[in-house]
């Protein structure tokens, strides 16, 4: 299966695993889970309880979530961002790998302890 890479224009970074492209497309980094940022619906009491026994429970460390978002933002400004789209999730977001200079953004965040592998 051929790999389709494209250059991505990043408009904004929501958190450590979700960005918005300049054309409005929402992209979720595939294969990682980053901590939530303040205000995340996943951290509301009912959602936390519902997700507590899931494969990926809510990770509601807001300070770490902010660090993760900031690290992703810094990483994505170090060169040309390439996107490798994989699929769409149930929320309509594109699931993709983002890389800069051949380095995967998700693996970078995991190496810093600012994300974990998606289970």
From TrEMBL:
<dbReference type="Pfam" id="PF00565">
    <property type="entry name" value="SNase"/>
</dbReference>
<dbReference type="InterPro" id="IPR035437">
    <property type="entry name" value="SNase_OB-fold_sf"/>
</dbReference>
<feature type="domain" description="TNase-like">
    <location>
        <begin position="4"/>
        <end position="119"/>
    </location>
</feature>
<dbReference type="InterPro" id="IPR016071">
    <property type="entry name" value="Staphylococal_nuclease_OB-fold"/>
</dbReference>
<protein>
    <submittedName>
        <fullName>Thermonuclease family protein</fullName>
    </submittedName>
</protein>
């Amino acid at each position: 299966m051929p790999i389709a890479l494209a250059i991505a224009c990043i408009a904004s970074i929501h958190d450590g695993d979700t960005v918005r492209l300049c054309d409005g497309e929402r992209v979720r980094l595939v294969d990682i889970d980053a901590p939530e940022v303040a205000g995340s619906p996943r951290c509301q009491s009912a959602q936390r309880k519902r997700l507590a026994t899931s494969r990926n429970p809510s990770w509601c460390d807001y300070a770490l979530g902010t660090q993760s978002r900031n690290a992703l933002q810094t990483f994505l400004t170090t060169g040309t961002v390439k996107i490798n789209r994989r699929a769409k999730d149930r929320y309509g977001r594109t699931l993709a790998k983002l890389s800069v200079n051949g380095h995967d953004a998700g693996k970078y965040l995991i190496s810093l302890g600012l994300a974990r592998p998606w289970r």
